[in-house]
Amino acid sequence: MPRRIQVLPEKLANQIAAGEVVERPASVVKELLENALDAGASRVDVTVRNGGKTEIRVADDGHGMGREDALLAMDRHATSKIRSEQDLAAIRTLGFRGEALPSIASVSRMVLETAEREGHGTRVVVTGGQMAAVEDCARRVGTTVSVRSLFFNVPARAKFLRSTAAENRAIGEVVTTAALAMPGIGFSFDSGPKDLLTLPIATGIGERIAALWGNEAAAELLPIAHRLSAGALSGMIQRPNAARSGGRRTYLFVNGRPFGDRNLVRAADRAYKTTISPGVHPHLFLFLEVPDGEVDVNVHPAKAEVRFRDRIGIERLIEEGVRAALAGLESTPSIGLRQPAAYPIV
Ligand SMILES: Nc1ncnc2c1ncn2[C@@H]1O[C@H](COP(=O)(O)OP(=O)(O)O)[C@@H](O)[C@H]1O
Ligand SMILES: [Mg+2]
């Protein structure tokens, strides 16, 4: 009998991985932002053309790469972030799969420019997963990745791209989430002619929220801080009297990583129950810190979800934490309706 099974060529394997990781321009921005943050950047600039469908460019001032690393970075499962099974249980970087760059490069025309020494840079050009050029370039320490013609070789996927405005909105949401996770880093997002977000370095979450949505929105929030054996919770939650129906903002982070989890949002809502009418949904900005090994971040290809070992403990931490913050509000009558925040918004 002839052999039926064969190992897929690298380029095809990358395109299949891209199917999971790269859904739309916003997923490319998410992966490139994560790489910039993992590289220790203090500022990250995102520029797109045509909602990212024509071009996405992410520039950082992180530690950059030498030539060998820049080439290796384009290989599947090549990462500087973990080395062993043990590392997988204690991930503190946003990336660890070693899949983003080769996946994105397999479905676009990518140019990566990077330097770890001032002026001594490398430019790597990859088109549809094929290495097209490697050359010297003069640039500052840091990395710029440009991704043009996303899905040019995957017409089935290209068809699902939405309008420029819709793609820009999704990218704005990705930048916003990263900016909330890292107030100490400066971000910008522009669509070529238009500045969509300008976020200077902030000293904390309150200041970052004010830069995103204005001082008034920030003044509607209360600080929250709670600790249980499952972990520690901090952040900001909206005052019950300021909450409205619709347009809800819920952002969850664990050990600095954004994730989605409806049950945890519900846990927070339970704590609000007696203070707000049904159908009204307060904004939540919740930051969890849990010990290594308590959270598994390797459950979703795009790293959008996580799994907690002690999920009941985490739900309790959130419910109790929100309740305690709201109780503090009741016992301080001076913080009445529609008054400015009792803490400084710098
Ligand atoms: N902006 C960047 N600055 C410095 N190094 C980078 C940057 N982007 C990628 N790299 C390097 O390339 C490697 C591969 O990146 P990626 O494919 O996203 O995988 P991962 O982030 O999971 O390691 C990273 O581990 C990192 O060493
Ligand atoms: Mg990465």
Your description of this structure?
Belongs to the DNA mismatch repair MutL/HexB family. Keywords: DNA damage, DNA repair. Residues 209-327 form the DNA mismatch repair protein S5 domain. The chain has 346 residues and is an alpha+beta fold. The protein has 2 domains: 10-199, Heat Shock Protein 90 (2-Layer Sandwich); 220-330, Ribosomal Protein S5, domain 2, CATH 3.30.230.10. It has 11 helices and 15 strands. The protein has helices at 10-21, 25-38, 67-72, 85-88, 100-106, 155-158, 164-181, 205-213, 215-219, 262-272, 311-330; strands spanning 43-49, 55-60, 109-117, 120-127, 130-137, 142-148, 186-190, 195-199, 221-228, 231-238, 250-254, 257-259, 284-289, 295-296, 307-308. The strands form 3 sheets. It has an 8-stranded mixed sheet with strand order 5-4-3-6-2-1-7-8. Strands 9-10-13-11-12 form a 5-stranded mixed sheet, sandwiched between helices. Strands 14-15 form a two-stranded antiparallel ribbon. The structure holds adenosine-5'-diphosphate (ADP) and magnesium ion (MG). Adenosine-5'-diphosphate (ADP) binds at residues 31, 35-36, 39, 60, 62-65, 73, 78-81, 95-101, 143.
